Amino acid sequence: MVGFGPEDSHFVAELTYNYGVGRYRLGNDFLGMTIASSQAVNNAKRLQWPINEISSGFYETEAPGGYKFFLEEKESSKKDPVMKVALAVSNLAKSRVFWSELLGMKVYEEDKGQQRVLLGFQDDQCKLELQGIGQTVDHGSAFGRIAFSCPKKQLPDIEALMKKENQKILTPLLSLETPGKATVQVVILADPDGHEICFVGDEAFRELSQVDPKGEALLDENMAADKSQEWFAKHNIPKPSA
Question: Which end of the chain is more exposed for a tag (fewer CB within 10 A), N or C?
């Protein structure tokens, strides 16, 4: 889990190494993440990472695998530099009803001409931007999900509302055991375009999501000691490469 601060107050991304996968087919569902950070722009230039200035102080770049990132050469006025995450939708009006009227997100900006709406749960948190693309949303093989924490007592109400409104529930409310740590309650939904949405009980989630002070060192150590070659040899299959 990587981000600019603790998960209870910052947006974080989950990066997962999946054994047996050498390449993902990107769809058109994830349109990018926007980060306001002069340091990020300076880092990209210093490391000679390919970035393209699409307007004054606003850059486009790609993470390995083709995921889009947009960098603003300024500092965020909020505590989290991650400003927004953009998802594609096939019918903006329909998706707006789902995310705003059913899930309760506040509409911060709306541009019907540009087919976009900006939503969020809190003023100082990362926002979700929905962009209408006028075609079917293709999740490819690289899709993920977006997750929100909320008081666990709200989870049964969320599930009940989705059932009442005939919305898709991918995983009914259940408890997930994490040995030696908290047991978390989750319910996983899908919006009209199949974007997966996980709601997790906040009380246990806060216990699970404590920042590990050794996190970066442990990550570097495990990446350096990658044993994927051993895993593939043990399973007698060749290691795929992208």
Answer: C
How far apart CA 147 and CA 95 sit, in angstroms, is 17
- Provide CATH code, domain 21-140: 3.10.180.10
What would the two tokens of residue 124 be? 């100082």
Q: How many CA atoms lie within 13 A of 202 on its CB side?
A: 9
**Would you give per-residue pLDDT tens digits along the chain (242 residues)?**
899 988 888 999 998 878 777 778 999 999 999 999 999 999 999 999 999 999 999 999 999 888 999 999 998 778 899 999 999 999 999 999 999 999 999 999 999 899 999 999 999 999 999 999 999 999 998 888 999 999 999 999 999 999 999 999 999 999 998 887 889 999 999 999 999 999 999 998 888 888 888 988 998 998 888 888 888 888 888 877 65
Global confidence as pTM: 0.90
DSSP β-bridge partners for residue 119: 107, 128
Amino acid identity at 95? S
C-alpha–C-alpha distance, residues 179 and 98, integer Å? 35
